[in-house]
Amino acid sequence: GEMIGNIAHQWRQPLSVITTSASGLNLEAELDMEISKEQIKEYSNLVIQQANYLSSTIDNFRDFLKDDKDHKIIKIDEVFNYTLALMDATIKNNNIRLIKKIEDNLLIDGSINELSEAFINILNNSKDILKEEISNEEDRLIFIDAYKKNSSQVVITFKDSGGGIPDDIINKVFEPYFTSKHQSRGTGLGLAIVDKIIRERHNGTINVSNEQFEYEGKTYKGACFMVVLNCKDL
After folding, report:
1. Does an H or E element contain 150, and which?
2. What tens digit of pLDDT does each residue of 199-220 get?
3. Which of 32, 53, 189, 200 would suit a FRET pair with 182, their CA atoms being 20 to 30 Å apart?
């Protein structure tokens, strides 16, 4: 369900451009307006450009849904490029500002598909909180940081401005089937899957805490998910 929602967000804007272009061309024809070759080329190029984008998103989601669990040496920035290509429209359509700082050449032994699934679940969790709790869209923030902690560890943090997780449930969020959402809106498996991917599949750790921080002169509070993975040398 989450993935279909992401696909819908990715497709809405390109489809709007295509229909607007086609409608504009059709209207000019119906009004017997003179249509130049340049206009036809402009409309056609817009449609082709957007259709190619739609095709590439199909490839991205198809690759994501493949059961590719093979581990190999991968770069963290490549994982995020892939993850954010899938999440870009969802983030933008919910008027969320994403601020990322990812160091180059952070290498781990892992699966891009599995880690992307984990990161998408974390980002979706933040997206839902920001959408529901933060009415001022300028204050909807997500921060992603990735850096080398020492010679053997990479740290990745996801921090949002959603107000934080209530103290009485923060220690339960990784438990299977635990959810603070209405039953019709979630199974409670999202963060449990994240925990399984990070701990069991990648021998890493994941923790969550509430943090208060400043950004652009304003003070915010939100959840901070910290992932620690074992790194590889170049």
Report:
1. strand 141-150
2. 998 999 999 999 999 999 999 9
3. 200
